[in-house]
Amino acid sequence: MQTKQLGNSNLQITAVGYGAWAIGGSGWQFAWGTQNDEDSVAAIHRALAMGVHWIDTAAIYGVGHSEEVVGRALKSWAGAKPYVFTKCGLIADAKGNVSKILDGGSIRREVEGSLRRLGVEAIDLYQIHWPPDPDSPKLEEGWSMLADLKREGKVRWIGVSNFDVKQLRRAQAIAPVTSYSRHIR
Fold it and tell me: What is the pLDDT of residues 99-144, one digit of tens each?
């Protein structure tokens, strides 16, 4: 499969990756419904066998369950380890309702949980999933924390998702943005 450089990183990624939103299962606000974990692991393994070499997930998908399933797939995969991309900044309450939270302490807890669930020493790409309200100073606090996590080696590259141009510029003023992705409706 052909590869391209991801933004300003040294990662060469395939044009197609494995999206792990649905494998998070049910029980939260944006769930796709019940999934079979063994089938999900088999699907990840099949994608990797076909040449896909990056997996996109998020702590919010299944309130951590997607990352757990990806972690199981990585642990049982005998081939070359794929790149792992995950996201922060969306937190579910006890009822599964989702809120945008970008304070530094919350993001640090999220990355530690993601590292544990995924079973990796560092996350290849860590993105802010959704920006805060347009003028919120939490954007700077959250993006500064991602830059700190990169310096600490917990994440290799940092990016944003669903930001507008103004928000992207605010982040870029603090630290380089490796990737930008947009949810298409």
Answer: 999 999 999 999 999 999 999 999 999 999 998 887 889 999 999 9
Is 61 in a helix, a strand, or coil?
A: coil
Beta bridge partners of 98: 92
User: In this structure, is the dihedral angle defined by the CA atoms of residues 150, 65, 117 and 106, taken in order, positive or negative?
Assistant: positive
Q: How many residues does the chain have?
A: 185
Domain ranges of the chain: 17-181
180 is an active site residue = no
Q: Give CATH superfamily name and number for 17-181.
A: NADP-dependent oxidoreductase domain (3.20.20.100)
Annotated catalytic residue: which of 61, 83, 126, 180? 61
* 116/15 Cα distance (integer angstroms): 28
Would you state the pLDDT for residue 183?
73
Q: Between the CA of residue 113 and those of 62, 68, 88, 185, what are the distances in Å?
A: 14, 10, 11, 29
